[in-house]
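User: Hi! Is it possible to get a structure for several chains at once, not just one? Here's what I have:
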Amino acid sequence: MIPVFLGVAILTFFVGNAAGNPIDLIRAGLRNPSPAVLKALQSYYHLDQPVWMRFLYWLWDLNHGNLGVSISGRPVLSQIGPWTFTTLELQILSLVLAVAIGIPIGVFSAKHQYSKVDYTITTVAIFGYSMPTFWLGIMLIIVFSFYLGWLPSNGAVSVSYPWWGSWVLDPIAHLILPTAVLTYVSLATIVRLVRANMLEVLRQDYILAARASGLSERTVTYRYALRNAISPVVTIIGLGFGAALAGAPALETTFSWPGLGYAFTQAALALDIPLVQGITIVITVMVLVANLVTDLVYAVLDPRVTVQ
Amino acid sequence: MAWRRFRRNKSGLIGSAIVIFFILVALVGPYLVAYPPRSYQSLYEGDAGDPPSFKHPFGVEISGIDVFSETVDSTRNDLYVGLTATLITTLIGVAIGAVAGYFKGAVSDILLGVTQMFFVVPVLLLILLFARVFSVLVFKGLGLTLIVLILSFFGWSGIAFIVRGETLRLKETEFVQAARSLGARPIRLLFRHIVPNILSPVIVIATLDIAGFILTEVVVSFLGFGDPNTSTWGLLLNEGFPYVRTTWWVALFPGLAVVFCVLGFNLMGDGLSDALNPRLRE
Amino acid sequence: MDGKLLEILNLRTYFFTEAGVVKALDGVLLEIDKGESVGLVGESGSGKSVTAQSVLRIVPRPGRIVGGSVKFEGEELLTKNEDEMRKLRGPKMAIVFQDPTTSLNPLYTVEKQLTDILMLHRDLSREDASKQALHLLDRVGIQDPERRLKAYPHELSGGMKQRIAIARALSCDPVLLFADEPTTNLDVTIQAQVLELLKQLQKELNMTMVMITHDMGIIADMTERVTVLYAGKVMEVAATPTLFKSPKHPYTEALLKAIPSVKQTRTLEVIPGNIPNLIEPPTGCVFHPRCKYAKDVCVKKEPELEKVTVGHFAACHFWRELELEGKRD
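Assistant: Yes, the chains can be modeled jointly so their relative placement is included. Here is the combined structure:
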């Protein structure tokens, strides 16, 4: 895991540097900070040192939880907290919903292969992962926000007047559309995967043997077949979380959702390299943690696997 | 024989039909549409911001760009990105995967580690970063090709993993052992015996990758990290989004084009997967 | 008990695949008395396994029983509903599958797989079921059963896994046991042990056993009566010694000739051709394309199962005329 982290760090830093050091960028008129900030940034980034020295300084800072200072003058770390929470709020809720809904649908679809319901489910699923997530978001905004006016179209909370007349319900109202979009797209992948694995497992001899022993259909389907089919799904869920996280920029931009993705996009466009680097590191860490958790869960589920 | 199975797979055929349709549009379409790419002509015709009509089947952007012409013109570019990126990543992935799977020792371990890194990492973020940095400061003239290169740089790890797995598996099979016992050298083994046998999964993954790369390009362009001078569906969405309240057609139609194009490749990939996979023989 | 334990009449089981309708069983006849040890022999694809699956009614999709009658202990099985069938599976009839690596669930311990069945059919608590499972492992000759009970299938050898599969099949004392190629996937030395075990258990428990195999050697060793199956149809039925000494069907003769013999030195005769396409089976006698005695009528008319003598039937137009070679050892 460490090598992966280092690799990402290297890539991020050196490419960021290719953008030119912050001072030049600032001077190029992208921002107009005060002379004091300029000076602070200059010494802070050790701009008198060669590139690889700066890289080491940066890693050292990272190690101590210091994510640097963005072009705007504010330290990166202070802003990342709320952003992370906002992004995770959306991601985790969607993931939980997608798994809770997706697995039963996938099982059902596999058991009723070739039926009309199966074809419908498969078709809906395949549309789901053929569309850009954010585009579905835009379409839903058009219908539910602009046309029907039922749901808000941007932000995580309202500024002046709470939706549905309550400050408690307001965040929920804002969550509905982006969650619906993300859940649907994640669902599509999960349903497809669970269905495929279940079909594979249901063909195995030990399922036939379980039926031959008189075990009930429900036991065979859930305790035997699903248990066997689920392991690869767990891995994919872990990877999917990483993918969804990486896809956050577009979805959050669509909904002006103030999370890491939205912040990343703005920062990258403005070439605010320290901020970009900081966010990338944070997201990478989250993805790595997700993968670690996935590996552990996988090892628990499948006794044939030993944890390294 | 696998061709016969593919022919029977309804969804695979539908997907192929869709793909062929889009290829035709890409090849011939730009010559048939009313307005040239990136043209604001409609502005001068007084049609800016018009909803769909006979003259403008997909409506007009606020800036005067005809959405239908642009969508058709973009087909060529989006397919270019998808196909080229897939081609490059397949070549890289097969090469790295085969070498990593066949040889033992430090080389193989390092390759595996690098592949893992590129696989796990949130690649889109790095793609966006690279795209922004390089397009602004370094390679100004490359346009979409820059995007293709960046996508290729980050996108080969999936294929590499699969190829590595298959190579490992095939290495132990009897026909490879037989060839080795007859004195075949590693390179010959790799290319004559192993690679032809991994073609099936590679073809399937490549087809699905085309879909994936098109989707990625759409995201990249939508966020504003693409090439503002080349028509792509993502660019259309980027231009349409700020005004979507009034000119919603700008977001709808290019998006539909993306959905169906990607759907086509996905269906085709699924059909190929069914046809090429040795399944139960009743 | 009066009458047969199992009576299968004109059983037809088809598989409805994308490529066409595969007629896996097309008119199978089988009769078994209680306590008998019967063989069901044929090449792969002849329908042997499907017969067992059809009796227990666990034919996997896209297969379906489309016609015929299966009477067990006098009762018609094909009209029973799923709940009724489930009560029979395990306590009354069971199957030992061919490959123990795939017939045991890799994710569950041996204990869990056995106790699940025991708790279901015998209404035992988990502890009692575990004790019973231990007893079962002992009965099938497994050393150190306590440790094996807690093991996962992948930790055990092939022979041991098959013994466990046998234990599972016998866990509820079934009356009828189908052994579907139980030794085909095992080492030769282990094969003998497992076959011995089956023979011993059958005697001890007075079980009716159907030995499904393609190996005539096993038939000779383990069975009293034999049914020869080809392409989903019955070719010949006879007592085992009779079948070997004086077969009345060309396919049986060919099967016998394909057994290598230690005593005689002769070239092994291979049956030419392949098993037929079950979607479009040959017309007339289904064996005619590979039969060296085939005549015109064999292509046109399907032979019926005719009585040769008591307990001996053959489905061939020329069983009276043909002087077929049997085996003397």
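The two ends of chain A are 12 Å apart (CA to CA). The longest helix of chain A spans residues 76-111.

User: Great, thank you!
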